[in-house]
Amino acid sequence: MGGITKPVRMLAAMGAAMALMLVAPPQEAAVAHEPAGIAAWRADSVHGRPLPDPATTSPSQVATFFAGLSPDERAGLVDRHPRVVGNLDGAPLDLRYAANLGVATSAMSVGRQVLAFDPRGDGEVVEVLGDLATARRVAVIVPGVDNTLARFDRGLGGVRDRAPAVQARHLYREMIDGERGSRAGGQPVAVIAWLGYDTPEGFSPSMVRSERALDGANRFVRFMRGIEVVNPEARVTVIGHSYGSVVAGYAASRLPSDVTDIVAIGSPGMGVANRDGLHTSARVWAARADGDWMRWVPGVQVLGVGFGMKPDDPSFGARSFSTVGADGHDRYFAEGTEALRNLARVGLGEPELVSGELV
User: Fold this and answer.
1) Fewest Cβ atoms closer than 10 Å to its Cβ: which of 72, 139, 260, 306?
2) CATH number at residue 178
3) Which Gene3D superfamilies match (predicted)?
């Protein structure tokens, strides 16, 4: 009886949210997100040269700007504008880590590599495990509904398997595991937990509409272009969990060519009718674990509500893989599961080792 109660509650809540949105006006898309301290940044300069404006300057242009500065000039910008430098895609990694070190200490322990941090609202944070500057294989986790800065380490409801930081640590350990590492030729790896957008609140109209995902996709594309600039040799896997897979779906066609794989797990849909609708040359993977309540969510898109066919549907056209051991919606990154092992294999560029694959 208990195994049915939660799915039924989830389905009822999703249905209520969808019904509400069919009669409610669409939400406006989120406005452009600017870092705290941007006004002072725009008023500053280096030798009379204006500083790169995040709203109008590409990550590659940002990188070019910083390449022309002396070490003292770079350090001065970190000291004067930590909240901007720490969130500036294309800026050198060491500067972003240093800028966020002081800003994020109240929320995160010292010694962690924080690539972006913003405590405003529900909060946003991006953490890196491994040496992102030298990694040849990089996996980026895009989390879904109800993830906030406060839940980044502990997870919604204290469920650690839902915490993006915990998911990233488990995947990183799996990717550097001796057996899989040797098959990958000992190549250096990195994992990124990207909570860089305002996720929808659970059981709210926003969780069945696309506005948050579209805004998140725009931010994610810029972030990924910044990663390409600082490490053009890396090959990248994007893993979208739950609503995070909607973000990945809307971003797919604009992601850099270094993204070789896109994975959707526990997905409500990717905003398209099928794999071809993603318009990407990357391999597309999808899986749903036994007991995941997402199976109750209809794979439809009506009047702006819903996200279309779920990618784990064979008709979608994605590659599938085994999720044995990852029962429910929150355990895809749980240690000891075939789901985690397969995510690591995809992340390492070893599709031939993925178990349970159907193409």
Assistant:
1) 72
2) 3.40.50.1820
3) alpha/beta hydrolase
